[in-house]
UniProtKB/TrEMBL annotation:
Residues 8-176 form the Aminoglycoside phosphotransferase domain. Pfam families: APH. Transmembrane segments: none annotated. Keywords: Transferase. This is Phosphotransferase family enzyme. GO terms for molecular function: transferase activity. InterPro entries: Aminoglycoside_PTrfase (IPR002575), Kinase-like_dom_sf (IPR011009). The keyword Transferase applies.
Length: 242
């Protein structure tokens, strides 16, 4: 019998949606995923992947894999508008970039906290408007723990899928790695972004600028800050940015 891994969801709709996301991602053909063997009302059963979670040194390799996935998604989403919900087929509509994200950022920035960020509610709104004309790809939640090395890069966890600018999902990878493992070397971060951008450029897509990437990092810093001490997040992002 093949070893398996079971993911349980709080609702049947969440389980169904994750299965559809998995199918869509797999069909793009650029991101390795475990086989989905069975689904019922609240669970998905996948093949077990005998790999290990990446370390910070693996970030450039994951960036290369993410770039291929984002390029394929960008081409598939040619008719999508960044800040509008989009039907990806199979009866699944994914959220636009602004939907819920801007509201959540503004809410967190308004709360009393020790967050050290140049972001303000006004800057968030300005950036949401600014990227409206950008070509969208997807945000899959590239948490470093959502990948396994086999030694190939294999993606796991298919709960989240929204439209997003190029580089936004990569920024989640960086922030999640730093908040999990501690401060990252600047050269490593730069190499990771450069690797990603080289693939975009070769595909004829616009690259993610340093200004954009810094903004996406700060957005993820704010959005992930409530989870310090949970889900493997042990280090606040500001300790990595000095």
């Amino acid at each position: 019998m093949r070893p398996t891994w079971t993911k349980t969801y709080r609702t049947s709709e969440a389980a169904k949606t994750a299965a559809l996301y998995h199918s869509w991602i797999r069909d793009l053909g650029q991101l390795s995923t475990p086989d989905l063997l069975h689904q019922d009302s609240h669970t998905l059963i996948f093949t077990h992947v005998p790999g290990h979670h990446p370390s910070p040194d693996d970030l450039p390799a994951i960036a290369s894999t993410l770039a291929g996935f984002h390029i394929a998604a960008c081409r598939h989403l040619a008719s999508a508008q960044m800040n509008q919900p989009h039907d990806i087929g199979r009866g699944v509509i994914i959220s636009g970039f602004t939907e819920r994200r801007e509201q959540r950022l503004r809410h967190l920035l308004a709360e009393p906290s020790s967050l050290n960020t140049p972001l303000t509610a006004e800057k968030v709104s300005a950036w949401m408007a600014r990227v409206a004309a950008h070509r969208p790809t997807v945000y899959k939640d590239a948490n470093i723990r959502n990948f396994l090395l086999t030694p190939d890069v294999v993606a796991v966890d298919f709960d989240t899928l929204t439209l997003a600018p190029l580089g936004y999902d990569l920024a989640k990878l960086i922030v999640s790695a730093a908040m999990t493992h501690g401060p990252l070397n600047f050269d490593l971060m730069n190499t990771t972004l450069t690797t990603y951008n080289e693939h975009l450029s070769q595909a004829g897509l616009p690259t993610c600028s340093n200004e954009e990437f810094t903004t996406w990092l700060q957005m993820h810093h704010v959005l992930t800050s409530p989870y310090i001490g949970l889900n493997g997040y042990r280090f606040p992002w500001q300790t990595t940015s000095s």
